[in-house]
Each structure stands twice: as structure tokens, then as C-alpha cells.
Amino acid sequence: MLTSKDVLNKTLTSTQFRDGYDEREVDDMFDRVVAALRYYEQGGRPGPQAPPSPARGHRFRSTKLRRGYDEREVDDFLDQVIETLRHYEQGGRPDLQAIAPAVGPEPEALGQRALRWLRGDARS
Description:
Layout (H helix, E strand, L loop, with lengths): L3 H5 L5 E2 L4 E3 H19 L20 E2 L4 E2 L1 H19 L6 H4 L10 H10 L5
Antiparallel strand pairs: 1-4, 2-3, 2-4
Helix pairs in contact: 2-3
């Protein structure tokens, strides 16, 4: 299942002088997908208040002479997006471990380590 962060970090192969999808249209679609995923990740529930599923049934303009994104790559990624949105629209809940930032002890600052070393303190 994808997260909004997965969509934000997705890089797509650019095309030029061969078939591709219009970059601006794809980027705009992914912005709407990120908004929908964030809604569900923040506890939003399906229903009339939920953002519409932006990916289902959308057609992008093709490009040939200007830059675009590889069509197969976009289509494959959109299949994953649709599967994730369908999960939420059917009442599924987010995987909290996947969307939570990595939380752990804060690394000790260099100055604090040096002071502890000078005092001969053992690391706790």
C-alpha cells in the first residue's frame, strides 16, 4: 500500500521524441493523489466529505515532441495508487508504521559527547 510520501518521492522516467504523458497533467494528478492519501492517513473516513478518487478513469494527453513521462511507468504506478485508494474507500485504515516518521532517541550532540568524555562519564 502506498503512502503520500511514496507519491511525493516517486520519480518517473522522462521521454522526448517518443510517446509519453504530459508531465504537467501527471504532476497535477499526483498532487491530488497526495491530498487524498493525506486525508485518509490523518484519519479521514470514506463518504461524501472524502476527496474524490483522482486517479480512476483519468486519461492523460500524449506527448511526442515535448517532454513527457513514460506511459507504462505512469500506468503501473497509477494501478498501485488506485489499489491504495480503493483500500481506503472501502473503509481500510492506514498502516501507522508506514506513515509514521522514524522515531528513535535523538542523537547526542557532539558537544555533549565531548563533555561527557572529558568528565569520564560512561554512556548511559
